[in-house]
Write a structure and sequence with these properties.
Jelly Rolls, 16 helices, 792 residues, alpha+beta, globular, 15% helix, Spore Coat Polysaccharide Biosynthesis Protein SpsA, Chain A, 7-stranded antiparallel β-sheet, 7-stranded mixed β-sheet
């Protein structure tokens, strides 16, 4: 189950789980008896609504994170014809159909956009089969009541009995266009009869959900129609183009046993670590701290660049969108010269002719007129003004009227097309685009990564982490490996550049210990520049290169980059078993709270790492029992705090951090709508160092209709709301600003960042692989109020 952690978009099923999934209890037993005994069951069907989800195909609905167990709304409908007059949603309607007589029935479904109607051979959901549908691609639709537009809409004749009830399921997906509707009709199998919408007289509820909390889901039927984990739909998963989905050793390197710290403690000489870009006690204007955050370089390529999104956004290439639209990338290409300049001096357009000498120049010539355009003008998109040709397609209406009589006398009457949509034939004199299939060009190798800097670019949200050169990595690793074990692989190297004092590196190497056991090395090293180089800085280290260390012999690195020494930076060791506290404030977001708790339980199952804690601060949620959900989950530890009043993010985060007693542990200020990679704990720990480093990983915001399996979206380069920091440092900078940011949020993360930087901490900023923010709208969130629907 956890071997494919990063591909999960729903809680995974146990391999031994039977399919179809068994219903633990008859749904009627949840309310105490058969629906025939309860009048409230009759005349209605269960309706589950999944809002704010793009796409027009039912398969898009199945990709929704919360489908089918956690809908946005659970309600009922009185007939199988629904039109909420909304956009980007999906519906699941289910219940029982009661035939009015014995006989053969036909069903038909109509909708805008796609829909599916499933019917069981009895009252069991597990026997449901697809009976009729509208489309599969999301582009198909029908008008209301148009039951015979597609052959797939109409079911085969089905024998039903009036003494029995039949489970049904109706799935509908609506995009952001068209007149939304879905309806199911039926008729006795007679050709002369029309389909009639199934109304309240012939339907009943599957179960009564009115008294159930939103996280109570045991009663919801899971069928072939609705469950995304079924084998029927697993085969429909298309391969996505995101490089980040491909396996990378970084994703699971945390599972490799770590090398004993005592074995590498004295490998390098210690040295003072005091980078020049730290802005301790420097006055920073409000919200300007993000200008002092720098990016780190990464090796090898972690493929965090969103290449699959560059069709829509080409900001990585640092060219104006208008320029690229007009000229493309031709400036990087040098066209080869034509082989015969005399033959290619002019570009001849028009029909073939026996010889140039046969061309006529008079208005009454029966030969076509040739247009001569210098080839160099054609290549750059410029053409001289062309003489108007009688009958040409570009002449205006008035010009056509004026010359109509003369042309009708001189030319034969042209045949007029019977269909207005047929394209007219090109007239003589009309210029077609020229194509030179033999044109070749020369191009030099271009690495656009070299044009980037470690400045925190807030304009381009599809570029990936900065790439670190291989030669530099090999040189640093080679110096280190001279002193320790055999190197198997370079898993990950991260560089923070400081041209004044030296570069800091995080080395993550896979080593062979005595040729037998494979171990993991993950520690910071420092390439410290020579004292003379440091004197350029006002904060030069008075103790020299290293504490009590002698200067090493020059290496290739020293000759190339200036005299330097590889050393171990003091007070920059990260703790591999430190406790991490995830702090999340919540209010009335049952489906998201349940998903977050399930993801945290899945994280524990995938890593078996018990050194993390979930802290939920609940602002009086009414749609679920948050504390009970925590108690029922398989979490190593959790804490629950209930508060009253309106939702306040800053106050909730501060209250959660206040529950942490150990100040030498890490608090991770978190959001509810996050998909975590399996290595999230390892990533937080190695980028947080008490008194030195805080961590603000960049999350990828998924677009509407996207999922971790199909990650379309962009990097949230402006947001710092996901923040890891030691509690002692958090307290030292003053915590959250709960006075200024009370019942609003937005800006509290930048304000906290200002104070963190002013305290002398560095903030690590990296795009984290497979770290996603789920798409959601603000409708119904926290303290929002919805306008009552109109009755029309």
């Amino acid at each position: 189950c956890f071997s494919h952690w990063r591909h999960r978009s729903v809680p995974c099923l146990d391999p031994s789980y039977p399919w179809p999934p068994p219903q633990d209890k008859d749904p009627d037993s949840l309310s105490g008896g058969s629906p025939s005994l309860f009048p409230q069951y009759k005349g209605k069907a269960n309706l589950h609504v999944f809002e704010d989800w793009c796409g027009g195909a039912v398969r898009h609905l199945r990709k929704n994170l919360h489908f089918p167990l956690f809908p946005h709304t659970r309600t009922t409908v009185k007939k199988l014809a629904v039109s909420p007059k909304w956009k980007n949603y999906g519906l699941r309607i289910f219940g029982y159909i009661h035939p009015f007589k014995d006989g053969d029935f036909q069903f038909s479904v109509a909708s805008d956009d796609n829909s599916e109607f499933w019917l069981s051979s009895d009252d069991s959901p597990s026997n449901s089969r697809l009976a009729a549908f509208v489309g599969k691609l999301g582009t198909e639709w029908t008008a209301p009541g148009e039951f015979t537009k597609f052959s797939s809409q109409v079911s085969k004749p089905l024998r039903l009995m009036s003494s029995r009830r039949y489970y049904f399921e109706l799935l509908h997906k609506q995009d952001d266009r068209g007149s939304d509707h879905v309806e199911v009709g039926w008729r006795i199998f007679l050709p002369s009869l029309k389909f009639e919408v199934i109304d309240s007289s012939y339907i009943s509820l599957y179960t009564d959900e009115s008294s159930l909390k939103m996280n109570h889901v045991e009663h919801i039927p899971q069928t072939l129609a609705s469950h995304p984990g079924s084998h029927l739909w697993a085969a429909q998963q298309d391969e996505h183009g995101a490089d980040m989905l491909k396996a990378d050793p970084r994703d699971t390197f945390f599972l490799t046993p770590a090398i004993e710290a005592s074995r590498v403690e004295n490998v390098l000489v210690p040295c003072a670590y005091s980078p020049t870009y730290v802005v301790k006690d420097f006055p920073i204007a409000r919200y300007q701290g993000l200008q002092f955050v720098y990016l780190s370089f990464v090796y090898p390529n972690d493929f965090t660049r969103l290449t699959h999104m560059e069709t829509e956004n080409k900001c990585f290439y640092r060219e104006s969108p208008l320029y690229l639209e007009k000229f493309g990338f031709y400036k990087y290409m040098k066209m080869d010269e034509e082989e015969d300049p005399r033959q290619q001096a002019f570009l001849f357009l028009g029909p073939d002719s026996e010889s140039p000498g046969s061309l006529g120049t008079g208005p009454s010539s029966r030969h076509p007129r040739w247009q001569l355009i210098p080839s160099e003008l054609w290549l750059i998109g410029m053409t001289p003004a062309l003489p108007e040709a009688a009958g040409g397609l570009e002449t205006t209406v008035s010009q056509q009227e004026e010359g109509k009589g003369q042309e009708e006398e001189e030319d034969e009457e042209e045949e007029v097309s019977d269909y207005s949509y047929e394209a007219g034939e090109l007239q003589q004199g009309w210029l077609e685009d020229s194509i030179n299939w033999q044109r070749t060009f020369s191009v030099s190798s271009v690495d656009f990564e070299l044009l980037r800097s470690d400045w925190n670019d807030l304009r381009c949200n599809v570029s990936g982490n900065l790439q670190l050169g291989e030669s530099e990595v090999v040189d640093v690793v080679a110096q280190y490996m001279e002193r320790i074990y055999t190197l198997l692989r370079i898993i990950n190297v991260e560089k923070r550049r400081d041209t004044a004092r030296g570069n800091r590196y995080l080395l993550e190497l896979e080593l062979a210990e005595r040729g037998q056991r494979t171990v993991r090395l993950s520690e910071y090293v420092y390439v410290l520049l020579h004292q003379g180089k440091q004197d350029d800085s006002a904060e030069a280290n008075p103790d020299g290169l290293a504490l009590g260390a002698t200067e090493p012999q020059p290496s290739a690195w020293s000759i190339l980059y200036g005299k330097s020494v590889l050393c171990r930076p003091l007070r920059l060791s990260w703790r591999q078993d430190v406790m991490v506290h995830f702090v999340v404030p919540v209010k009335n977001q049952a489906r998201w709270v349940q998903q977050f708790i399930s993801d945290m339980a899945g994280l524990y199952g995938a890593t078996r790492d018990a050194n993390f804690n979930v802290i939920l601060v609940d602002f009086d949620s009414e749609d679920m029992d948050v504390e009970k959900a925590l108690q029922d989950a398989r979490l190593p530890r959790f804490q629950y705090l209930r508060r009253t009043g309106n939702f306040e993010r800053s106050a909730g985060l501060q209250a959660g951090v206040d529950m942490v007693e150990d100040e030498h542990s890490i608090v991770f200020l978190c959001d509810l709508h996050i998909h975590f990679p399996a290595n999230i704990l390892d990533s937080i720990r190695k980028h947080c160092v008490e008194g030195k480093l805080a961590y603000a990983p960049i999350v990828m915001r998924l677009s509407c209709g996207s999922s971790p399996r199909e990650p379309n979206g962009y990097w949230e380069v402006n947001g710092f709301g996901l923040f890891g920091i030691y509690k002692s440092d958090f307290d030292r900078v003053g915590g959250m600003n709960t006075e200024e940011f009370r019942d609003r949020w937005g800006g509290e993360d930048w304000e906290l960042l200002d104070r963190v930087l002013q305290s002398g901490l560095e903030v690590e900023r990296l795009r984290l692989r497979n770290f996603y923010h789920y798409y959601h709208s603000k409708r119904g969130m926290w303290n929002a109020r919805s306008k009552k629907p109109s009755k029309d």
